[in-house]
Amino acid sequence: MKNTLIKTERLSKSFSCGGAMQHVLKNVDLELYKGDFTVIMGASGAGKSTLLYALSGMDTPTLGKITFGEKTISDLSSDGLALFRKEHCGFVFQQIYLIDTMSVLDNVLAAGLLVNKDKKALAVRARELFKAVDIPEETIHKFPAQISGGEAQRAGIVRALINSPEILFADEPTGALNSKSGLDVLDTLTSFNEQGQSVVMVTHDMRSARRGNRILYLKDGIIMGECDLGKYAPNDEERHKKLSDFLTKMGW
């Protein structure tokens, strides 16, 4: 029996565009479970990122309800949502957003100090995480412009995990990386998920999507279907076929 981490009820999001209303999410009922690696797929404009931002408290729904554990986050104020995100969520984006004038380590510590004022303890945890993502000690003292895109994205994952979030949200985390760097980032996310970290990832990429155990397909703001891939294993041709068949059925 899986434990529900986030639940939505009739989640809807609309925008006004040129005087007309654009309905991006339409009455989405969804449960996300603790420990899952959930992947959200769909064509451009399907509402994937909008759903991710609503689930994470980065944006508020037009209608509907979002609960995180026992807390209804859709009722929170802007300040309440900011506190919720700091205490419960980690974020990895396609654009990495490391601060250019700070070292890689200081970028991570700055995020940690928003929640934990014990800088010494944070530095110990940061170094453990850097080691886990295969970033050596000499690299963490460099500035972001001095490291590769793959190293920067893995440092972004460390920054997202420094406060031990209950859930990690990733929006196209390999979209700006070359094939090798993208694979390293996927291996990193998979490794943390195997240790129990809950992950929700938006992607257009089949290779990335195969890392998930649960695939949700979004079309025109509605979840059209889902696919259970089970535990990830590399070079699993049956897994690839199952996902490919599912996406074909969805009209991918």
**Major β-sheet annotation:** 6 strands, mixed
Quickly name the level 1 CATH class: Alpha Beta
Unreliable stretches, pLDDT < 50, 5 or more residues? Answer: none
Given helix and strand content, the structural type is alpha/beta
Query: Given the structure, what is the number of helices?
Result: 9
The fold-level CATH name is Rossmann fold
- The share of residues in helices is 25-40%
Tell me the strand order in the biggest sheet.
6-7-8-3-9-10
CATH architecture: 3-Layer(aba) Sandwich
Going by CATH, the homologous superfamily would be P-loop containing nucleotide triphosphate hydrolases
Ends: how far apart? 31 Å
**Shape call:** globular
How many domain regions?
A: 1
Mean pLDDT: 94
Q: What is the gyration radius calculated from CA atoms?
A: 18 Å
Please count the beta strands (DSSP E, at least 2 residues each).
Answer: 10
How much beta, percentage-wise? Answer: 25-35%
How would you spell out the order of helices and strands? EEEHEEHEHHHHEHEHEEH
Topology record:
Blueprint: E1 4-17, E2 20-33, E3 37-41, H1 48-55, E4 63-68, E5 71-72, H2 78-88, E6 89-93, H3 104-112, H4 119-132, H5 137-140, H6 149-161, E7 167-171, H7 179-194, E8 198-202, H8 206-209, E9 214-219, E10 222-228, H9 237-250
Parallel strand pairs: 3-8, 3-9, 6-7, 7-8
Antiparallel strand pairs: 1-2, 1-4, 4-5, 9-10
Helix pairs in contact: 3-4, 3-6, 6-7
